[in-house]
Amino acid sequence: MDGSQALDVARYYQGVGSLLPEIVLGAGATFLLLFETFAKPAPGGRRAGLIAAGVLALALVASVLVAGQRATAFSGMVVVDPFVDFFRVLSCIAGLLGVALALRSDEIDAALRPEYYCLFLALVLGMILMASASDLLMAFIAVELMSLMSYVLAGLRRHDRRASEAALKYVVYGGAASGVMLVGFSLLYGLTGHTQFSLINQVVVEYGREVARSGLADPTKLLHMPVALTTGMVLSFAGFAYKIAAVPLHMWSPDVYEGAPTPFTAFLSTGPKAAGFALLTRFFVVGFSDAAQFDQNLLTDISALPWLILVIVVSMATMTVGNLAAIGQSNIKRFLAYSSIAHAGYALIGLAAFSKTGASSVLLYMAIYVLMNIGTFYAVIWVREQTGSELINDYQGLGHRAPLVGITMTLFFVSLTGLPPLAGFIAKYKLFAAALERAFGFETASRCAPAVMEHAEILDKLACTFGGSGMFYALGTLAVVNSAISLYYYFRVVKKMFLEKPENPAPIPVDGLSKVVLVGVSVLLLWFGIFPTALEAQSDKAIEFHRPTLAEVQPSLTPSLAAKQLPAATTAEVTPTTPAAPAPAAQ
């Protein structure tokens, strides 16, 4: 190996030291797997859970120690920035809560617990990599790492018919979604010549400027984005939408949530969903926004791409379908599955706003949602252990038999609904405020001026009413209506717990660990609801994306095969200041 090649290798691994939490999780999962393979089996399998909790605690400490760095690793495929710092801490905390749920539950066989915790650590690693992925290839690897672990954990109870059915549906739907996402990625690469989000951004923004210049030069010959770019964005979004269980790619969610072990269902509804939103946010903000406009708190739509309308429609459909479907559920896990779908629709409001406030509100919402939902599932696991049932009817009189569980579960439902003074209210308020802020920022199109609208046809009037700012007013209004619907079905459970007498009035004692977890989560939700400033400040600070330049992502001085095959006309792509643009398509 000559000196230049050695220099290139060193440069490729430069920045790996900033990935200490990821290294801890990977090494910890490997150690746990080898240790449990050769060590004497422990009764109950609790030892593996305690080791996993220790690894997650070390990763959390490492996340705090390395916070504040800005670095790239593996030729820019992975980045470290405040956004990653936020999701590292969130993922590790969610992982620790997930381990606590698994230690509490009796649904996982003792013989399978070591494998469960090994796969669980790998799943958390995949979540963090999704937040730090800055390249199409790395994004796909991270998504598949998380997905493969999820498939196995969902079907861990091999002799349970529901679990096997859930895992099969999960794999089939997941494979199809990954294929669709890969097609979208390939279109983006073929059109821009890059897999790095920030370099794709340079190409797209430059073409957006050409569109603007052409419109000023000759308004009769407007340029639009190539269809391939629109298609690539839509297909990529479809792949991400599956991971967050957004409509119409939500069909797997209720069956998987019902069939999977309840501790994993609790984690699946929070951690991986938050990671999906992390990747979704970085992909669209870094790849398809103007950095200067983003710093001014309002992104500029690059030409007339329909993806913004698509996100708004998906958000509306997701929250509406999730809430309406939850009303008629009799199984508490399916009930919470549809509730989780609805909350994905709420979080999509922040992405639809496509602004700094919108992106910050998504992070805030995900952090609070992790607490709300895991607290709710902890109560569900406790009730299942006491009654042996997951049916809502068996919650009858629970508030009289176990007042602490009934009261804390009511607080969780109040927070999920978005009522003050709990943290769920702040989370939803920030999302709704982001939509209204974007609505205020829209300028009325000339064709929608009042003087013109007086003589316009009915279809033109409707288009102007629901176009631009009208879309966001409609989105905010529908979100408020859906929150009212959720109040009905959440309090249907509360009614059963407190307003109906139990068949067996004997009190149910609550153990010490359950008291600590339920009361602790309730206090945190109340604290962040009354004093949200610190969490808001962290979510605002996290929206400082690192956008690697070409110098950071070029791994080798030796031209790659792909670079050798590029025609001479595309040499502008290797210059950071003048990125190449797709060929204009005149309309």
What does this structure look like?
With 587 residues, the chain is mostly helical. The protein has a domain of 233 residues. The protein has 26 helices and four strands. A two-stranded antiparallel ribbon has the order 1-2. Strands 3-4 form a two-stranded antiparallel ribbon. α10 crosses α15, α12 packs parallel to α15 and α18 runs parallel beside α23. The longest helix is centred in the first third of the chain and has 32 residues. The chain is globular and about 75 Å long. The relative contact order is 0.11. The N terminus and C terminus are likely disordered.
* SSE succession: HHHEEHHHHHEHHHHHHHHHHHHHHHHHHE
Low-confidence stretches: 1-7, 296-303, 556-587
Estimated radius of gyration: 25 Å
Count helical runs: 26
Amino-to-carboxy terminus distance: 53 Å
- Which structural class matches the secondary elements? mainly alpha
Percent of residues in beta strands: under 5%
- Biggest sheet architecture: 2 strands, antiparallel
Q: How would the global form be characterised?
A: globular
Mean pLDDT: 81
Instruction: Provide the spatial order of strands within the biggest beta sheet.
Output: 1-2
Count of DSSP E strands? 4
Measured as a percent range, the helix fraction is over 70%
Please outline what is shown here:
With 587 residues, the protein is mainly alpha-helical. The protein has helices at residues 3-12, 20-38, 46-65, 82-104, 113-132, 136-154, 161-192, 197-217, 227-243, 252-259, 262-268, 271-287, 291-295, 307-327, 332-353, 356-387, 398-401, 403-417, 423-441, 450-453, 458-466, 469-498, 512-530, 533-542, 550-553, 561-565, and strands at residues 71-73, 78-80, 223-224, 585-586.
